[in-house]
Amino acid sequence: MLGKPRRRGHVVLAAAVIALVAVVVAAAALLTSGGQSNASVPAPRPPAASNPALIPVTDAAAVPTTAGITAALAAAVANPNLGTLSGRITDAKSGAQLWEQRADLPMQPASTNKILTAAAALLTLDRNARVTTTVQAADQTRMPGVVVLVGGGDPVLSAAPPGEPTWYRDAARISDLADQVRKSGVTPTAVQVDTSLFTGPDMAPGWDPADIAGGDISPIQSVMLDAGRIQPTTLESRRSPTPALDAGRALAVALGLDPARVTFAPGPAGGRQLASVQSAPLMERLRQMMVLSDNVMAETIGREIARATGRPASFAGAADAVISKLAAAKIDMTGASLVDSSGLSVANLLTSKTLDEVINAAAGPDQPVLRPMVDMLPVAGGSGTLSERFLSGDPKKSSAGWLRAKTGSLTNTNTLAGIVTDMDGRVLTFAFISNNAGMSGRTALDALAGILRTCGCRS
After folding, report:
1. pLDDT of 81-118, one tens digit each?
2. Using an 8 Å Cβ cutoff, are 166 and 250 in contact?
3. Confidence check: pLDDT of 25 > 60
4. How many helices (DSSP H) and strands (DSSP E) are in the chain?
5. Cα 197 from Cα 60, distance rounded (Å)
């Protein structure tokens, strides 16, 4: 889920119409004046400049006090648009809690749930792990020429032609599978799709089927085309209700076969392997999942965790694996109730204490295996779902570049969990969950996190 952003299509369309009218008027004026325009041409703006830098922090930086943080947050916390607020702030180095409000209350976490999925993956899987998709021959005695696309759990198999970029970085390609099949000695006559690796339903409890057309999710199947994205090069593309069949149809087209004849295999193929391709490494897939809050990527990685821990590759198996893995890592999972790995379901419940403990474990000194997650968090004003947030004309009031966090947004729910370096150079971790939020709830939540950068809460 791209943080369930508020749709901006009408704004973009209005801007496009205004721009088009301006172009038409300017062109008409130029034509009626014999090609001479009296309009003054504004001077070109100087090129934008930036000075990116890594600024080290010191252990000697002062730790904010609970009284200082409480006083600084008081007005922002009272904003009625926050609805029911749960939150926790801790010191990254020591892990000491500095502030909390209803931190033990289970609430809807939205996409901050992906923090748990990423942490469990880092604790469970090899960082270079790849997912393999194969094509196998069916029983050539009974079904001569039938080839089976066997899902291995990779949701982003791409139909992009060779040489063209894929939407997901380093995605495996249908064209490579087709080339290998042609060289295998089997003359294909039809394509089947084997999705038996994943079990249980392919839509989680609490998911809204309308979110398929809305672009947030697709049925979770063990092989998918571009994570179900119908328009892979469009950021807010609609998703497909038949992602596995879409992948099979793309393979059929690449092999010169009728895509309308593609069907699901009656059972596991079990025949000779004719072709195989591999996904990007786990670290790249986790980065894509976190930066753009991709729900499909989260759900399939959750199933990798489930399989690695001996559980069914299902929604329930993945949720159980994530909770169990984090509990074993001494994360307080009290009150956790998950039905998916992405946070899209309204049935998920987590506490801000759990979210903050995971972030703190990644940012602090005691769980180095989780440290890569810090680099996966979107940067305020700079990347992913935070690229247009925490921007301010006054650098002294801006958290841009100083704050990294995972976002979350559902109807009337806004969440944010991450790290921030305060004005004294102290690194803090935080988690805020706002349920029953008002119209400006997301802005109100950002204000809380922004204060931590600028308040100087030492007293």
Report:
1. 999 999 999 999 999 999 999 999 999 999 999 999 99
2. no
3. no
4. 12, 12
5. 52
User: Using 50, 70 and 90 to split pLDDT, how confident is the model at 36?
Assistant: very low
- Which of 1, 55, 31 shows the shortest CA–CA distance to 235? 1
Burial of 141 (0-12, 13-18, 19+ CB in 10 A): exposed
Distance (Å, whole) CA 158 – CA 76: 45
Contact 381, 403 (CB under 8 A): no
- Residues 158/167, Cβ–Cβ less than 8 Å: yes
Q: What is the pLDDT of residue 33?
A: 38
Q: Which of 246, 224, 129, 245 is nearest to 168 (CA)?
A: 224
pLDDT at 10 over 70: no
Judged against a pLDDT cut of 50, whether residue 158 lies above it is answered with yes
Q: 252, 262 in Cβ contact below 8 A?
A: yes
Q: What is the pLDDT of residues 209-241, one digit of tens each?
A: 999 999 999 999 999 999 999 998 888 899 999
CB atoms within 10 A of CB 16: 10
Sign of the dihedral defined by the CA atoms of residues 177, 179, 180, 182, in that order: positive
Type and span of the H or E element at 147: strand 146-150
Strand partners, 154: 223
Check residue 143 and report its DSSP letter.
Answer: S
In 3D space, the residue among 105, 2, 58 whose CA is nearest the CA of residue 421 turns out to be: 58
Q: What is the largest CA-CA distance in the chain?
A: 80
Does residue 9 carry a pLDDT above 60?
no
H or E stretch at 86: strand 84-91
pLDDT confidence of residue 412: 95
The mean per-residue pLDDT over the stretch 115-123 comes to 98
φ, ψ of residue 189 to 5 degrees: the values are -120, -20
| Residue in the block written with tokens 């038996």 | 196
Check whether 17 has a pLDDT greater than 70.
no
C-alpha dist (Å) from residue 408 to 13, 155, 295, 298, 350: 26, 22, 11, 14, 13
For the chain, what's the residue count? 459
Please report where in the chains the tokens 């690695």 appear, as a residue: 308
List residues with catalytic annotation.
111, 114, 293
Tokens encoding 267: 């059972």
CB 159 within 8 A of CB 202: no
What is the value of pTM for the model shown? 0.87
Q: Which of 35-39, 257-261, 358-362 has the lowest mean pLDDT?
A: 35-39
Instruction: Count CB-CB contacts under 10 A for residue 80.
Output: 10
Alpha helices of 255-399 — where are they, by DSSP H?
Answer: 282-291, 295-308, 315-328, 352-363, 372-376
Place of tokens 């399989």: 307
